[in-house]
Design brief:
The chain contains ten helices and ten strands. The protein is α+β, with helices and mostly antiparallel strands. The strands form two sheets. The protein has an eight-stranded antiparallel sheet. The two termini are about 30 Å apart. The relative contact order is 0.15.
């Protein structure tokens, strides 16, 4: 059986709902003007964070700004100066894309609305505007309902323990750290000479010998480029191994995130005679 499924991942996100929101009297009723004001406020924060990503920073310009900024102390100036002086000399300064930033935030908002709409009905019935909730505001009544819900959900998720991977790994020819692949970035999946090679960043590779893809063969893998802004990414959220008919069955729960932050959860399931890793 799979332990770390799409439903598990969704439940894990919902278990943090209580930390996502803060109380607001204005969230007690649906008000379009309040929603628009909160949306723009949260977008401004998002935009500011995006603008200060590594790709858009010009170290020469930042150093000049630091030198004349009277709001920061001399100690802070020294630390910031060291940071920018350590930037690569050939660093490319990309132009910030305001339209793309707007698209990304709108997609993030859509994703959050879809996620929090999956809260139990006794909670969603009390949410005046799920869009406002998705932006981080809720009534005191809703927050009171969230506390026990999130607490119980966290307890139930802790009971989901992968009992198979450790046992299955004992049958491998060589030791691998397969159960620690969270946030492993895939850049390519290639079938060659009967084996399946899963390529990751920094020359990391997982090879499944005599492989047969059971699930996920038709799915697309993004070729992540960490040197460019807004690069699409395919990220492993969880991985596990089982023994099935004297073969190894590897399960990967993967999330694809596009340039505009459209997301897709999918499963890659592969059977084979052995699993190896190369660093």
């Amino acid at each position: 059986m799979k332990y770390f499924t799409k439903d598990y991942f969704t439940s894990d996100l919902l278990s943090f709902s209580i930390k996502h929101v803060k109380p607001s009297k204005k969230a007690e009723i649906k008000n379009e003007a309040f929603y628009q004001s909160v949306y723009e406020k949260q977008y401004a924060i998002f935009q500011n964070n995006e603008k200060h990503c590594f790709w858009y920073l010009d170290p020469t310009k930042e150093l000049k700004n630091i030198a004349i900024d009277t709001r920061i102390s001399e100690e802070e100036k020294k630390l910031l100066t060291q940071v920018y002086e350590n930037f690569p000399k050939d660093k490319i300064v990309y132009t910030f894309d305001e339209n793309l930033c707007r698209q990304k935030f709108a997609e993030r908002q859509r994703n959050n609305v879809a996620l929090y709409s999956r809260l139990p009905q006794y909670i969603t019935d009390k949410i005046a505007d799920i869009r406002v909730f998705a932006l981080g505001y809720a009534s005191a009544e809703v927050i009171q309902l969230l506390r026990p819900y999130c607490s119980e959900l966290k307890k139930s998720l802790k009971k989901v323990v992968d009992k198979d991977t450790a046992k299955a790994k004992k049958f491998l020819k060589n030791k691998i750290s397969f159960d620690g692949f969270e946030n492993f970035i895939i850049i390519a999946i290639e079938e060659k000479n009967g084996d399946l090679h899963i390529e990751g960043v920094d020359s990391y590779r997982i090879t499944i010998k005599d492989a047969k893809i059971i699930e996920g063969q038709e799915k697309k893998v993004f070729r992540y480029d960490g040197k460019k802004p807004n690069s699409p990414i395919s990220l492993v959220l969880a991985a596990e191994i089982h023994r099935v008919e004297n073969l190894f069955e590897a399960h990967f729960l993967i999330q694809n995130i596009s340039k505009t932050e459209q997301t897709e959860l999918w499963n890659l399931t592969v059977r084979g005679t052995d699993i190896t890793e190369t660093c």
